[in-house]
Write a structure and sequence with these properties.
With 337 residues, the chain is mainly beta. Helix content is 6%, strand content 41%. The radius of gyration is 19 Å and the shape is globular. The chain starts with a helix and ends in an 8-residue tail after the last strand. The N terminus is likely disordered.
């Protein structure tokens, strides 16, 4: 009985698209191939086959819910990777988890003020880690070994330079750091010493090109900056100096919507309300939707932060399911994640 059940699960691993279908009529099953899911230090300790694990859950019943512990995800909000393929997961509950599947190790970032609400995370070419914490109203910088180094902008007494820092990105070419300060309706560009180089947008917000209402996510790719302008339900594409190039209208945007861009310039936007991904090409055409509500493979509950590593590996923060799911862009056989 076990072998037929495994075959059945393999054939159904990619869930159907939500209705209505995009104009292209393409199915998502050939676009994203499931690789793995992980939720705690236990997942790093040894090899694990997701289909076999799911089979065991069906036969023996689901595992008991994990207790709140530093080594288990509680509400993952953002995810990124570094040059040695470590995975950093910002958890709203006040911790940044580090999963190293290459070396079979788990850890978490240490030092500095105790994290309150880490909502954004990024790495630079030297594998330093930048964490934007809206509760602390600052950005913390950690070294390649996970130890706190300093603040990008330290609060002075009860005053802080940022109001609500959220999405953060680092341009690998110039090393400039971009921070979405949502309630100020601005994207701030800084150098690695914390000097402000420019601000994009204006106080009070706006709807014109280059203006924002509650910008929440930012991605630096090539010579372009992609900003999720949540209050205006659009993605604005700028050059790295903040000059407007074009915009893409998106649907069902909320404060926890995630944003990522792959090597081909395709744009991935999470939809926490319908628990699915929207995928656009660089011209703004909707290519397909992927996912649906649930706790199975390719299903989501509270989908939020997104990250593309190596151009074809898509990490998805699946918040209320307390896990991260990894997919291979282009389906199985398109590369190695």
């Amino acid at each position: 009985m076990l072998f037929p059940l495994i075959l059945l699960l393999l054939s159904n691993a990619a869930p159907p698209l939500s209705s209505p279908q995009p104009k292209s009529g393409e199915r998502s099953s050939g676009r994203l191939g499931f690789v793995r899911q992980f939720s705690s230090a236990h997942d790093v300790s040894g090899p694990s086959h997701p289909i076999l694990n799911k089979t065991v859950d069906i036969l023996a019943g689901p595992k008991e819910e994990q207790s709140a512990a530093p080594s288990a995800l509680q509400e993952p909000a953002a995810v990124t990777t570094d040059s040695v393929h470590r995975i950093f997961v910002a958890d709203v509950k006040g911790v940044v988890h580090v999963f190293d599947f290459v070396r079979g190790e788990y850890s978490h970032l240490e030092g500095g003020d105790h994290l309150r609400s880490p909502l954004g995370i990024a790495t630079d070419t030297e594998d330093n880690v930048y964490v934007s914490d809206s509760g602390l109203r600052t950005v913390l910088i950690y070294g390649p070994k996970g130890k706190f180094i300093r603040y990008l902008k330290k609060a002075r007494g009860n005053e802080s330079y940022f109001d609500t820092p959220r999405g953060i990105a680092v341009d690998p070419g110039l090393g400039h750091i971009y921070v979405c300060d949502a309630s100020r309706h601005m994207v701030i560009m800084l150098d690695k010493q914390g000097r402000v180089l420019a601000t994009f947008g204006k106080r009070g917000g706006g709807t014109a090109p280059g203006e924002f209402r509650f910008p929440t996510e930012v991605v630096a790719r090539g010579d372009e900056l992609f900003v999720l302008d949540s209050g205006n339900a659009r993605i604005q594409i700028l050059d790295l100096r903040g000059h407007f190039r074009k915009e893409i209208t998106v649907f069902d945007v909320v404060h926890s919507t995630g944003l990522a861009v792959d090597k081909d310039g395709n744009i991935y936007v999470s939809d926490p309300e319908l628990n699915r991904l929207q995928v656009f090409n660089d011209d703004g055409q909707l290519l397909y939707w992927f996912g649906q509500g649930g706790a199975g493979i390719g299903q989501f509950d509270g989908i939020s932060g997104l990250w593309v590593d190596s151009g074809h590996c898509l990490y998805v923060a699946d918040g209320k399911n307390k896990r991260v799911q990894l997919f291979q862009i282009g389906g199985q056989g398109a590369g190695s994640c």
